[in-house]
Amino acid sequence: MSTLQELCSGLPLRPLPENRGRRAGVPHAPTRTPGLSPAEEQLALRNALRYFPPDLHTLLAPEFAQELRLYGHIYMYRFCPSIEMRAYPIEQYPCRTTAAAAIMHMIMNNLDPAVAQFPQELVTYGGNGQVFSNWAQFWLTMRYLSRMTAEQTLVMYSGHPLGLFPSDPRAPRLVITNGMVIPNYSSRSEYEKLFALGVTMYGQMTAGSYCYIGPQGIVHGTVLTVLNAGRRYLGVEDLAGKVLVTSGLGGMSGAQAKAAVIVGCIAVIAEVDKAALAKRHRQGWLMEVTDSLDHCIRRLRYGLRRAQDSTPGLAAGTKQEAGAWTSTASLLCPSREARKKKDVLSLGYHGNVVDLWERLVHELDTTGELLVDLGSDQTSCHNPFNGGYYPVQLGFEEAQRLMAADPAAFKGLVQESLRRHVAAINRLAKKNFFFWDYGNAFLLEAQRAGADVQKTGGNKTEFRYPSYVQHIMGDIFSQGFGPFRWVCTSGDPQDLAVTDQLATSVLEKAIADGVKASVKLQYKDNIRWIREAARHQLVVGSQARILYSDQKGRVAIATAINRAIASGKIKAPVVLSRDHHDVSGTDSPFRETSNIYDGSSFCADMAVQNFVGDACRGATWVALHNGGGVGWGEVINGGFGLVLDGTPEAEQKAVMMLSWDVSNGVARRCWSGNPKAYEIICQTMQDHAGLEVTLPHEVADAALLQRALRP
Fold first, then answer.
1. Is 530 helix (H, G, I), strand (E, B) or coil?
2. Is residue 323 exposed (0-12), middle (13-18) or buried (19+ Cβ within 10 Å)?
3. N or C: which end of the chain has fewer CB within 10 A?
4. Which residues of the chain have pLDDT under 70?
């Protein structure tokens, strides 16, 4: 097994490591079909070989050519490290700077098999969210980081480490760009070719910026989304006994199971990939699993008791024999209805979600009983034809074979499946059932497939069902609340517990000092979240926490953490970050900016300015991406990492950078006409003398516009 010292010594060339190929027993990315011409195949091979001295080309060229033809990409499996990939305590990394060691900690967490979706293909989440394009890039990056001084910046071009360049100590130590393709060439088909050539990369959001923290990263947002959906659609604060049906148990979507338990509802979550389902069950995020639709329906209708002779530690309702899930409907006790009992349940259904939706329609049509209250979808529908969405007509393995052998036929089945998917939801929505798009491009792809999702009188970013940003989370973003997060690089759970205590104290003090009612509600939700997060053991990978917070809360929490590091209460530096899916970080007309109605939702000035502004104000590293969430060419987004080391300089950077990182987006949302953003930015200007924002004047008489435009 390699050591961290060896990992930082550069590409292992003399001798070369043994080529073990793809490892058995771990999930692998679907085969890509880039459609390269013979000349383009040669170019892809040439581009891969340039990482290696000429005397190795004769050996490596056939090997890389085989990977390209078998998998549609050159991952360089020979160079996949043998070290246990995980976030090691920061002091173990052989580096010259704390910043570099913190970045290494974050990179290795993104590739931890417990965290990453397809670790050998360097995919963290979302089906195609790459950390690097190949393993040579990983080795070179680790070497550069180990050598980097406080007067150098590492520059990353779509996974490729361009090199270390002299810079000021106050500049970022790392600058990342992913997928910055000229707009007219930023299509899906062009992307597949460019990725196969090894010249660009889809970094999703926090995969390619090295800031992913496992499924916890979306649990809090999912908790808030479901809570606020209950408030908005069902008119309830307590979701006990309410049923949520959705799909996806992968890197991000896996959060749905835990979120359902935290909010206290009943959730049935479909997943076609048995490995993903089993992973969430082993981690304790799923309470039960089954491959039986009959079991799902009975479980919604009736209570369940564990048979006295059931296997200890195995979820009720399932048996696991030789790796297979087998329904045990005989354990059912049909004496009490589950919804009336107000059970808390996360049930994983191994099967296609379209089958589940169509079965719910069948139950409604034959019994008159609506068994679901809320619904959404978290398949990776931003990547529907390359493993992000599996058609109901085929089993999982059969679909993967067709995807590689006949992409056009596979696409046709996916689009037919999307039409069936929507038809079932539309039938249920005629009753007291509410569906929303979770920002995964589900409704966008359904529309492209010809499904009935059109909204009468809507604009081109609106559909029959709302995006969760439009109806649920948009008001939160407008108030400056978003997915702030931190990582304790000591790897010690006790450090994380200290940060939880500090964050809770900060929020409780803010409430005691007096805040607006709407802000107070968010703070109370946050306090509940922190307490539930600790109780539910949400950490997978690095010792991290996510917390939806506003500018005031982020700055206060960062300051408290930095001072705790200085005093020794926290043993090692803490990395601050956030999801790119935030107030200012992302321009995405079908998600983050879908509730901006002045025509600018297709403009990316906010995300680009945020990237530049964070770099100017003290970020340790910054990233700017094409694609993420809703897919390639549909979004520009950026993120950052900021290392708190207990110094006064770190505190100054945190105050300056975090303030900009929120105010930029609130100001933009204010200018677009959002009244809540207007109110928040005006209050922020009162609190900060150096902030001056251009405020919009509302057109009071809408009829004036029509009169002025008459011929």
1. helix
2. exposed
3. C
4. 1, 251-252, 303-341, 470, 474
